């Protein structure tokens, strides 16, 4: 079985060495980049299974780096590892295209567990490999989405949100349930991360086609039917 390749983007030498050593001891192959531009160069030529990215980086900050990774069409999971640990910082990291967020100081055991969870989620084989609701189609093998035969490009979290809605087609799912199953986070109930991501998803899945499939059920949640 091929080794998992991890990109570690961290400018603090001690932290980078500590994280790299932990991953290598756990059997992962690692590449370390000390600034955002070096990391971007690595992404352009390398083949990675997951990335661990700090936010406060020289030359190009972590959020800008993640956005560019997604713009390049790279869909591997990204976990943000940062000293900026407020709820707002976490939302910014996830909205930029990150898949998980771990604040410093951190437990290396938790970091390893989160990375393994992201890898399982990214590589899991679903019971249904082809999901369809009306003229909306999703292929879980290729992670491609089409509506009325038109390809829809989604960021990883948008894809996971849509897949979750399609697997629960016709069923109203609450905001809290979505956060637990898609983000695997228990955010403060005052945050609007679900609404924000749902709005972006509707812009891509519903708005160009003139007919809504995703509905808000006031006081309950969302349903796709």
Strand order of the largest sheet: 2-1-3-4-5
Number of strands: 11
CA-based gyration radius: 18 Å
* Biggest sheet character: 5 strands, parallel
Helix content: 40-55%
CATH A-level architecture of the largest domain: 3-Layer(aba) Sandwich
Strand content: 15-25%
Question: How many domains, as an integer?
Answer: 2
Name the overall outline: elongated
Notes on the protein architecture:
- With 225 residues, the protein is an alpha/beta fold.
- The chain has two domains: 5-123, Response regulator (Rossmann fold), CATH 3.40.50; 130-224, Winged helix-like DNA-binding domain superfamily/Winged helix DNA-binding domain (Arc Repressor Mutant, subunit A), CATH 1.10.10.10.
- It contains eight helices and eleven strands.
- A five-stranded parallel β-sheet has the order 2-1-3-4-5, sandwiched between helices. Strands 6-7-8-9 form a four-stranded antiparallel β-sheet, covered by helices on one side. A two-stranded antiparallel ribbon has the order 10-11.
- Helix 2 packs parallel to helix 3, helix 6 packs across helix 7 (175-183) and helix 6 crosses helix 8 (193-205).
- It is elongated and about 50 Å long.
- The relative contact order is 0.10.
């Amino acid at each position: 079985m091929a080794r998992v390749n991890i990109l570690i983007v961290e400018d603090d030498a001690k932290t980078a060495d500590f994280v790299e050593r932990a991953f290598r001891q756990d059997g992962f192959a690692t590449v370390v980049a000390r600034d955002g531009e070096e990391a971007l160069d690595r992404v352009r030529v390398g083949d990675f299974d997951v990335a661990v990215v700090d936010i406060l980086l020289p030359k190009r900050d972590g959020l800008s780096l993640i956005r560019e990774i997604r713009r390049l069409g790279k869909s591997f999971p990204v976990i943000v590892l940062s000293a900026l640990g407020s709820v707002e910082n976490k939302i910014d990291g996830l909205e930029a295209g990150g898949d998980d967020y771990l604040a410093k100081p951190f437990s290396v055991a938790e970091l390893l567990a989160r990375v393994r969870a992201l890898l399982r989620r990214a590589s899991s084989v679903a019971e249904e490999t082809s999901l369809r609701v009306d003229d909306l189609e999703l292929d879980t093998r290729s992670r491609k989405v089409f509506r009325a035969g038109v390809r829809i490009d989604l960021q990883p979290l948008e894809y996971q949100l849509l897949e979750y809605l399609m697997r629960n087609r016709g069923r109203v799912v609450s905001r809290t349930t979505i956060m637990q199953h898609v983000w695997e986070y228990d955010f403060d109930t005052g945050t609007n991360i679900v609404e924000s991501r749902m709005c972006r998803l509707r812009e891509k899945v519903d708005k160009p086609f003139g007919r809504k499939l995703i509905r808000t059920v006031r006081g309950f949640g969302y349903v796709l039917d």
